[in-house]
Design goal:
- 47% of the residues lie in helices and 15% in strands.
- By secondary structure, it is an alpha+beta fold.
- The protein has 4 domains: 1-64 and 99-128, Putative Large Serine Recombinase, Chain B, Domain 2 (Hect, E3 ligase catalytic domain fold, Alpha-Beta Complex), CATH 3.90.1750.20; 131-291, no CATH class; 359-415; 433-499.
- Helix 7 (202-244) runs antiparallel to helix 9 (287-298) and helix 15 packs across helix 16.
- The relative contact order is 0.06.
């Protein structure tokens, strides 16, 4: 039992995970009674956090005798309360420490690793700690390339979006944020590198996974056998108590018979639970299960992305192969230098692109503006400009992979670029016909006002067949004079005449 707890802590990494494992498999912990009439007896209780923590922290299980683990601090001692002021001291300050004093469950080195793991799992720890369920895969591994501090993960919109930030300068000295970048782009790059590194070891991983599952099931089967033996022992003892009682003691015999019956029912229920466990999880993996493990190991990307793989498991895989990731953002641009230090001592360096909020943060923004100006002066359409920018490798900010018509048009307006008007094919005009803009200039009036007259039917006009947006107005000398007079009249008089049914007369061109 004790060995199982230590092994699962080494595998799972957190006290809570070990507790959940024991509860899930209905494993009880033996505890010696410290007081009362049954003092010294061994009782079996359901697992709890305090018992597990004391078990992992106590040096007795590492074969060491220790005295003075808790000492009285006079500064924390309260008057009238003799048992106050006790504080836990590190092993360097214990009064007595004798290693290899008795047989041990774990080595002293493993004990120290467990203590360090428990300390790093605390929320305020600066170490890596054990991975949690947040979407940020690299929390605890990132190091700022500018100041050398640890980068933290910051979530927004719940757990959907995250970024990595180095706020050491701001928190400690009241300065500015050192650097930050979106978490999605960095996670994608690191995951690709990890999957490529694990691909050659796919077969070994599948064999190790199968072996680990079989060992875990054998360990659980051993625990079940111990529980069955304990239940059999309790049943036999209850039977002996009943058989040894004198028949004249009917009340005692009746009570012992009830206890024996309860032990028999508990034993039978435990046996049924064990048989159910054996059906659900046999000791040996079936050929189909072994083949499924090999197939999943060979397709690591699919195994990585399935919903059954938790974020904590993905983080644990990354931490098994990566020691540290050094990140350096080049100024405020989109370029980020990433150096991965692998567990074997090898390191690799690459440059990735992060999303930025502004066009001016792009490292190639001056070249993009210059090229966009050239394309506009060449009178290319918006679609042609989009194609040229894609072919030349330009990309918009926020890690978009493609330009759109709206993005290009917005940028053109922002830069104040105006394309030169293309010469439009115009049909030849008949006698006394005018293009609307030219007639507006002749009459000395705004083009929009003359267009409003066309909409109201106050002039004789028609649309160009090849270009419906262009209007042609008929106006001879008499019509021009009428339009000038009409232009000088107040708008109110014109509208009042129209309300009375007196619409201005429009001259009809001769046939």
């Amino acid at each position: 039992m004790v060995q199982l707890i230590f092994r699962k802590f080494e595998e799972l990494g957190t006290l809570n995970a070990v507790l959940q494992y024991l509860v899930t498999h209905h494993i009880q912990i033996g505890v010696r009674v410290l007081s009362g009439p049954t003092k010294g007896d061994l009782e079996w209780h359901r697992p709890n956090r305090a018992t597990l923590q004391n078990l992992l922290r106590h040096p007795t299980y590492a074969g060491a005798y220790a005295y003075g683990r808790r000492q009285v601090d006079p500064r924390k001692k309260k008057a009238g309360r003799p048992h106050t002021g006790r504080v836990v001291k590190p092993c360097e300050e214990w009064l007595v420490l004798i290693k290899d004093h008795h047989p041990a469950y774990i080595s002293w080195e493993k004990y120290q690793q467990n203590i360090a793991q428990l300390k790093s799992n605390q929320n305020r720890s600066n170490e890596q700690g054990h991975p949690r369920q947040g979407v940020g895969l690299l929390c605890g591994l990132l190091v700022c390339g500018r100041c050398g501090g640890r980068m933290a993960v910051q979530y927004s919109h719940g757990q959907d979006h995250h970024r990595y930030i180095c706020a050491r300068e701001k928190v400690d000295y009241g300065g500015e944020i050192c650097q930050h970048l979106s978490g999605a782009c960095l996670d994608e790059y690191v995951v690709d590198q990890v999957l490529q590194a694990l691909e050659p070891a796919a077969l070994e991983l599948s064999l190790a996974a199968a072996r680990h599952l079989e060992e875990d099931r054998l360990e659980l089967d051993k625990v079940w056998h111990q529980r069955l033996e304990r239940a059999q022992f309790e049943t036999d003892r209850a039977r002996r108590h009943y058989q040894l009682v004198e028949p004249e003691n009917r009340l005692v015999a009746r009570q012992l018979a009830q206890e024996w019956e309860a032990k028999l029912q508990a034993q039978q229920q435990l046996q049924e639970d064990y048989e159910r466990f054996c059906c659900e999880k046999p000791k040996q993996l079936s050929p189909d299960q072994q083949q499924q493990i090999r197939r999943l190991a060979q397709d690591l990307p699919a195994l990585w992305s399935v919903p059954t793989t938790t974020q904590a498991q993905r983080k644990e895989i990354i931490r098994q192969v990566i020691d540290k990731i050094i990140v350096t953002v080049e100024g405020t641009s989109e370029q980020v230098q990433v150096m991965i230090e692998w567990s074997g001592g090898f390191s690799c360096q690459a440059q990735i692109i992060r999303p930025v909020a502004k066009w001016t943060q792009l490292s190639y923004y001056p070249q993009l503006c210059e090229r966009l100006e050239q394309l506009v002066e060449a009178n290319l359409t918006t679609d042609e400009i989009v194609d040229c920018l894609h072919q030349e490798g330009f990309r918009p900010p926020k890690r978009r992979q493609t330009f759109t018509r709206e993005i290009v048009q917005t940028l053109i307006r922002h830069l104040g670029l105006r394309p030169r008007p293309l010469p439009k094919a115009r049909e030849p005009l008949s006698e006394h016909e005018w293009w609307l803009p030219e007639l507006a200039v002749t009459l000395g009036m705004p083009t929009v006002t003359l267009y409003n007259w066309v909409r109201r039917g106050w002039v004789k006009a028609r649309q160009q067949p090849t270009s419906p947006k262009h209007w042609i107005i008929w106006a001879d000398e008499i019509e021009l004079e009428r339009l000038r007079t009409h232009r000088q009249r107040p708008v109110g008089d014109i509208l009042r005449q129209r309300w009375k049914g007196k619409v201005p007369t429009i001259a009809i061109p001769p046939e």
